[in-house]
What does this fold into?
Amino acid sequence: MWLFEAADRLGVHVVKATGSDRGSRGGLDATISLLRVIAPVAEERGMTIALENHAGNVLEHPEDYRTVFAQVDSAAVGMCFDTGHFAASGHDLVAVAKEFAGRIVQVDLKDCKGPGPGAFVRFGEGSVNFDAVLREIMSGDCAVGHILVEFPLAERATMMADLRAGAAIAHRFGD
It folds into this structure.
């Protein structure tokens, strides 16, 4: 609850969170139990909880989100759509975007070599078709508030070029 208090004081209206490792105690059920407690607080404060997918996490696959959204009836709970992690988990990003169009509240841009853990690469070196997935997300019923640029720091020498590449992708679809 202190996170909501801090966010409120800062004028922040979206809080990003994720679940625990898939092998941890409690699993997805523990995440759902917590969301049932904190979602009403987020609603009262006019905040949104953006649940980010991660490979190997209890929030990894579309069925995880189906379960969460079926069991936590709150407009304050949405999806943070991480392109790299959905690709690392082997999912069709456009299909996931279509299915969850009304629940996507934030997008994290990250490229991925392909399915498998730790396969994140510089923009343009991976398998993510950013134009296709962002076109789907931005043309649907999504309430996307932010598109964030994420990338692995492969080399300090290319850091600014990597940031610019991600920003160029994001700017094609929003401000």
